[in-house]
Specification:
The complex is a heterodimer. By secondary structure, chain A is mostly helical. Chain A has one domain: Orthogonal Bundle (ABC transporter involved in vitamin B12 uptake, BtuC), CATH 1.10.3470. Chain A has a two-stranded antiparallel ribbon with strand order 1-2. In chain A, a hairpin with a 2-residue loop joins strand 1 and strand 2. In chain A, helix 2 packs across helix 8, helix 3 runs antiparallel to helix 8 and helix 5 packs antiparallel against helix 8. Chain B is of the alpha/beta class. Chain B is built from nine helices and ten strands. In chain B, the strands form two sheets. Chain B has a six-stranded mixed β-sheet with strand order 6-7-8-3-9-10, sandwiched between helices. A four-stranded antiparallel β-sheet of chain B has the order 2-1-4-5, covered by helices on one side. In chain B, a hairpin with a 2-residue loop joins strand 4 and strand 5. Chain B is globular and about 50 Å long. The chains are: A mainly alpha, B alpha/beta. Chains A and B meet through helix 6 and helix 7 of A and helix 2 and helix 3 of B.
């Protein structure tokens, strides 16, 4: 056993885990406020990646500079998805809601494939590239930047929900929308906000990933699968729980891949998922009902 | 006295089911009005129409001289109408203080001012010592008072109280009665749906009796308690 490589693997697991956490926070906000599982969540991430790619390729704007723009674009997309699709099925049976977001997923992938071809794309030579060596350990700068960016974004979301007036209104709507309405909080705006915020989280994660991860129409699939695992682990609607759970999933994935074999990476993560569902259905950090 | 709330010929149908029909009454500023009637008389439906949970099928509701018929509940909150629920609806995983802060944020942009306002209302409702406890850990009586504090934090002119005394012990009923009296002293009018007669009779200025969705009587508590129509509705003749 080579300890250097093990430590290296552990750290890269933590770094990618922080990005997973951000994707999961977005999913968790949407579920927490509306109790709708968004199967198209990975596609928000995919659109985030493509927005970064095209701004870079067409206008030579670096992903790190266009990140706020992509966040805004995804926020608007999320709010529009709510306004034109989700709003209609907000009080429909759960099966209709699953079909609706599943349908969106297929639609978004199809649109991406139609417009941008199924090719793998990459953002080459952005501001963040190369490696640093710290104490004999190698870090990809894009990975480091993505991890730090994801933690900052997660922190910003936590601050927004827990420390602002609008965040309190969102939380109140999540807990009891009718009681919140009596406090003068219009549910529809809060739902749109949740979708905007949820999509923006996935979009920002997509931009952060775009500097080192290939971009293609189906890229969202893996990430949304992992986001489900993270959310199940961290407890729905729990931002700090998602952060820890994201890191755990990242470490388990990378470490499992290293110790058992890279081809089993996702299988190991999903085994963890099944174990958690069986042993602690409320999530590792979630409170029992 | 000026009329705060005027309900005129209000009706509400759910398909073929008539829940409210031709109900008219008014409520003056600072008044306590009791709304009573047997189970299924349409009291909660009337409440829901006034609070904006669903639009009435017929008739109008005027509040402070404005037509508010069919206005959604967030707008009602802005107008100055607050309500509590028969079955408590606190934000369970928030603390007691945070629950009330959500109400206070309606009129206060600043989170710290909302914090102060919420603390004041908790003190008013006797919940200061429970401020940092999750709302779901409170007793039923405390949760009812929390709902009142949260509603008061929205700074209403009219408070709709839906069976706030149901299921309380006799001493808790007396505390609730005391609370309603002090709310009235602040100049806030209360419309109260109540089954607990010893809770509502001593404090109401005016009583309205519903049966089968219609208003069958109104008057002072003393008048109501010896009205033959009311007695018939309650005792089945």
């Amino acid at each position: 056993m080579n300890w250097d490589i093990l430590l290296q693997t552990l750290l890269s697991g933590i770094l990618i885990g922080m990005v997973y956490a951000l994707v999961a926070v977005g999913l968790s906000i949407i579920y927490g406020v509306m109790e709708i599982v968004n199967f198209a969540h990975g596609e928000f991430l995919m659109f985030g990646m493509y927005s970064s790619f095209w701004l870079f390729t067409l206008f030579a704007l670096d992903p790190m500079l266009t990140l706020p723009l992509s966040a805004l674009f995804l926020f608007a997309l999320g709010a529009l998805v709510y306004r034109f699709t989700i709003k209609r099925i907000a009080s429909a049976p759960m099966v209709s809601q699953i079909f609706a977001t599943f349908g969106l997923m297929i639609l978004f992938r199809g649109v991406a494939q139609f417009l941008w071809k199924p090719d793998f794309r990459t953002v080459e030579n952005s501001l963040v590239s190369g490696n640093v060596v710290v104490g004999g350990l190698y870090f990809g700068i894009p990975h480091l930047v993505a991890a730090v960016g994801a933690v900052l974004a997660t922190g910003a979301v936590w601050w927004f929900i827990n420390r602002t007036r609008l965040g309190a209104a969102l939380e109140a709507t999540a807990q009891d929308k009718e009681a919140a309405q009596l406090m003068g909080i219009p549910s529809h705006w809060m739902f749109a906000l949740a979708w905007g915020l949820g999509a923006a989280c996935a979009g920002v994660a997509g931009v952060l990933l775009s500097t080192f991860f290939p971009i293609f129409p189906e890229v969202g699939a893996t990430f949304s699968l992992i986001a489900f695992v993270v959310v199940a682990l961290g407890g729905f609607g729990n931002v700090t729980g998602a952060l820890w759970a994201g890191i755990i999933v990242g470490v388990v994935e990378v470490l499992g891949g290293f110790l058992i074999g890279p081809e089993y990476k996702l299988a190991i993560v999903l085994t963890l998922f099944l174990l958690v569902i069986i042993v602690r259905p409320q999530g590792l950090m979630g409170r029992a009902e | 006295m000026n009329k705060l709330l005027v309900v005129d010929k209000l009706g509400k149908h759910f398909g073929g089911l008539v829940a409210n029909e031709d109900i008219s009454f008014h409520l003056e500023a600072g008044q306590i009005v009791g709304l009573i009637g047997p189970n299924g008389a349409g009291k909660t439906t009337l409440f829901n129409c006034i609070a904006g949970f669903y639009p009435p099928s017929e008739g109008t509701i005027r509040f402070l001289g404005n037509d508010i018929t069919g206005m959604p509940s967030p707008k009602m909150a802005h107008m100055g109408i607050a309500r509590t629920f028969q079955i408590v609806r606190c934000f369970g995983s928030m603390t007691v203080l945070e629950n009330v802060m959500v109400g206070a944020m309606l009129r206060n942009k600043s989170v710290s001012i909302a914090h102060e306002r919420a603390s004041d209302e908790l003190e008013f409702c006797g919940l200061s010592s429970r401020a940092s406890v999750p709302a779901s850990d409170l007793t039923v009586a405390e949760q009812r008072r929390l709902e009142v504090a949260r509603a008061l934090a929205t700074e209403p002119h009219l408070l709709l109280l839906d069976e706030m005394m149901a299921g309380l012990t006799p001493s808790e009923v007396q505390e609730a009665v005391g609370l309603v009296k002090t709310i009235q002293k602040r100049g806030i009018a209360c419309l109260i749906v109540e089954h607990v007669m010893e809770g509502i009779m001593p404090i109401a200025d005016h009583m309205i009796v519903l049966d089968y969705g219609r208003k069958i009587a109104e008057g002072t508590p003393a008048e109501i308690s010896c009205d033959p129509v009311v007695l018939a509705a309650y005792l089945g003749e």
